[in-house]
């Protein structure tokens, strides 16, 4: 059963903290450091994807992610994080996005889900379930450049759509994902699973294991055998052809924090 106190302990936070920007930053960063993205256990016991990716059992998801410490995908992680923020008194909305692919195209609009928080008249992007390197701390919905741990982020807006852009020390500006600032309801994902599976097949991502965890100054990401390390804004991409090395990296990303 969902338990705010248990969740806060998993995140290493005493509670219940007051709903402000400092709290949001701490919860967001700790979430990324302590709970990895891991699509290999969704659905947890294998089989077909659920008919509605966003309409998940909160108690079962809480038991998997928080109690047993198993990583999850954006639909699981954002579901729980939004509930936590709501319980703490934040004003939130669930938002969907299309993720930028290698060739500059975007995935279907409903393929990613994250949380937007309204604080003191400003919107803050809170995304604890992204499968690749992104922002460790909440991002203000603003065209202003926002440095974080060697990378820089900003949000460009045009014709009602917003695009999160990221620049590292070794790359130029690259889109992360684009979205509309529209509150999404779980029912909007009815019938989307089939289109999502077709997208995965066409993008050669079907059955590909994707793992990602934040570290103190960046992210470590594993997509198939491609291993991307981003630390202090420097990026290093390698191919893990040795099975033993692959397993070592996978364990490193999945590891419980602080020996838990």
TrEMBL record:
<dbReference type="InterPro" id="IPR038765">
    <property type="entry name" value="Papain-like_cys_pep_sf"/>
</dbReference>
<comment type="similarity">
    <text>Belongs to the arylamine N-acetyltransferase family.</text>
</comment>
<dbReference type="Pfam" id="PF00797">
    <property type="entry name" value="Acetyltransf_2"/>
</dbReference>
<dbReference type="InterPro" id="IPR001447">
    <property type="entry name" value="Arylamine_N-AcTrfase"/>
</dbReference>
<dbReference type="InterPro" id="IPR053710">
    <property type="entry name" value="Arylamine_NAT_domain_sf"/>
</dbReference>
<protein>
    <submittedName>
        <fullName>N-hydroxyarylamine O-acetyltransferase</fullName>
    </submittedName>
</protein>
């Amino acid at each position: 059963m969902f338990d705010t106190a248990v969740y806060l302990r998993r995140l290493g936070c005493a509670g219940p903290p007051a709903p402000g920007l400092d709290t949001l930053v701490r919860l967001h960063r700790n979430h990324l450091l302590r709970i990895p993205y891991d699509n290999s256990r969704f659905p947890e016991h294998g089989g077909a994807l659920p008919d509605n990716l966003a309409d998940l059992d909160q108690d079962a998801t809480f038991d998997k992610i928080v109690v047993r410490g198993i990583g999850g995908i954006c639909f699981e992680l954002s579901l729980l994080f939004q509930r936590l923020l709501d319980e703490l008194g934040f004003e939130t909305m669930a938002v969907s996005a299309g993720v930028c692919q290698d060739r500059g195209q975007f995935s279907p609009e409903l393929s990613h889900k994250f949380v937007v928080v309204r604080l003191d008249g400003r919107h803050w992007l809170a995304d604890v379930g992204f499968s690749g390197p992104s922002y460790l701390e909440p991002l203000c919905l603003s065209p202003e450049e926002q440095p974080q741990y060697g990378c820089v982020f900003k949000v460009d807006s045009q014709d009602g759509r917003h695009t999160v852009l990221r620049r590292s020390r070794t790359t130029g500006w690259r889109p992360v994902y684009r979205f509309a600032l529209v509150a999404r309801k779980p029912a909007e994902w009815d019938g989307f699973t089939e289109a999502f599976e077709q997208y995965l097949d066409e993008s050669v991502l079907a059955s590909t294991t994707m793992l990602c965890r934040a570290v103190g100054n960046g992210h470590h990401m594993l997509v198939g055998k491609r291993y991307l390390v981003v630390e202090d804004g420097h990026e290093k991409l390698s191919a893990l052809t040795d099975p033993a090395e692959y397993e070592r990296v996978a364990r490193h990303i999945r590891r419980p924090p602080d020996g838990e």
